[in-house]
Amino acid sequence: MNRRDAILALGTDGFVQTRLPAAFFMHFDPEFHLGQSAVKKHLEYFRYTGMDLAKIQYERKFPFDPTIQKPTDWRRIRPLQKAFFEPMLEAVDGIVEALGSEAVVIVTLYSPFMCAGHLAGADALAAHIAEEPAAVAAGMQVVTDSLMVFVEACMQLGVDGFYHSTQGGEQGRLAAPDLFHHCVRPYDLQVMNEVNRRCRFNVLHICDYHAPYDDLSPFVEYPGSVVNCSVEVGGRRLTGGEIAAMFGRPFMGGLDRKGAISTGTVDEARSETRDALGRITAPTIVAADCTLLPGAPWENVRAAIEEAHSWRP
Predict the structure, then answer these.
(1) In the chain, domain spans
(2) Residue 13's pLDDT is what?
(3) Residue 284 backbone dihedrals phi, psi, to 5 degrees
């Protein structure tokens, strides 16, 4: 079974996992964010580490708008056009052309809530939602429409799917739980439902970069081929099998992005990976719970992937 088949077979009827695919992701230095330089760096990293899933880092944040000072300002934001995304789309095109025949290629997709945070700042966005959610919701729709311009262009370029990162439901992120259901979830699902309908493989990433989660249940009905998240939830440590059962799909993860793979030696990265492999009870992609820390050694990533590939049921 080649790399593409190993990923696409996950979760299919009658699937029995005999080989563990693995992939770990990181942001590259700014000079490798866009265009052909991004293509070269992604290919270099993919080849060096031997990973099974190619994920294109998204590095084209929505531009900060200093005129968004109060909730009603969200009613007048303007949509972004395809030209804004072209430097990112050049990278997507080159990576799909180079790797699409041998590996599943997905694109990182920040959620509308995350992109709105780029426009005004995360703290201001949360404050505006608490003050006047209906006004912010109007802006969230414009942000979602802008994001779909990028999504549509990526699908036209032949990506296999997306790594959709959601935020907004973390502990204390918004002033009240109902605000998540009013100003975050509907816009997440507009994007996710469309890519899930049209793409072969999508990752639901529940991102705890800003804060941990008390509860994952608000995301159980979010679509996606696999679920990627931290195993630390509400003060408990879950297993990948428990998360897979909760979401009804394979788990992607097992390693702490802040652990030995990012900060330790090669031997420590191998040892930590072997420990994670010992806890596997369901179809899995071995990965970290989020993007690795800046400066994570490529040697550690390659070692972790080698350990995953040596696993046998």
Answers:
(1) 3-309
(2) 87
(3) -145, 145
